[in-house]
């Protein structure tokens, strides 16, 4: 039984070493995504804004803001507010 645990630990150690580059890349991606989400939420925290307004205020491409807003809306973090011309404004739900 001890022999198997030792083999399992060695296999896990080897696997971690092999995938270390991928794990670090994933961590960096998550950090960037979290920063973008915070920027978007900060822009609509006090006043609802359209996607172009958020993009201009954050300096992010409109297409990227649209992608994140869509995800945040899907999971209930933000919601549509009033419509201004062709654009909906978005606000935080909580």
Would you give an account of this structure?
- The protein has 94 residues and is an alpha+beta fold.
- The chain has a single domain (2-92), classed as Arc Repressor Mutant, subunit A (Orthogonal Bundle), CATH 1.10.10.
- 66% of the residues lie in helices and 14% in strands.
- β1 and β2 form a beta hairpin.
- α3 (51-58) packs across α4.
- The chain is elongated, with a radius of gyration of 21 Å.
- The termini are far apart.
Morphology: elongated
Number of helices: 4
Q: Tell me the strand order in the biggest sheet.
A: 1-2
By DSSP, the count of extended strands is: 2
Low-pLDDT stretches: none
What count of structural domains?
Answer: 1
**Structural class, please?**
alpha+beta
pLDDT averaged residue by residue: 93
Strand content: 5-15%
Major sheet characteristics? 2 strands, antiparallel
How much is the radius of gyration in Å? 21 Å
**Under the CATH scheme, which class?**
Mainly Alpha
Q: Can you tell me the CATH topology?
A: Arc Repressor Mutant, subunit A
**Cα distance spanning the termini:** 51 Å
String of helices and strands: HHHHEE
CATH superfamily: Winged helix-like DNA-binding domain superfamily/Winged helix DNA-binding domain
**Share in helix:** 55-70%
At CATH's second level, what is the architecture?
Orthogonal Bundle
């Amino acid at each position: 039984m001890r022999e198997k645990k030792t083999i399992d630990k060695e296999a896990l150690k080897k696997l971690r070493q092999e995938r270390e580059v991928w794990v670090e890349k994933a961590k960096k991606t998550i950090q960037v995504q979290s920063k973008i989400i915070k920027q978007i939420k900060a822009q609509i925290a006090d006043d609802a804004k359209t996607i172009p307004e958020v993009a201009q205020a954050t300096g992010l491409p409109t297409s990227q803001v649209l992608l994140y807003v869509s995800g945040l809306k899907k999971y209930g973090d933000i919601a549509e507010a009033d419509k201004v011309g062709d654009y909906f404004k978005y606000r935080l739900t909580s």
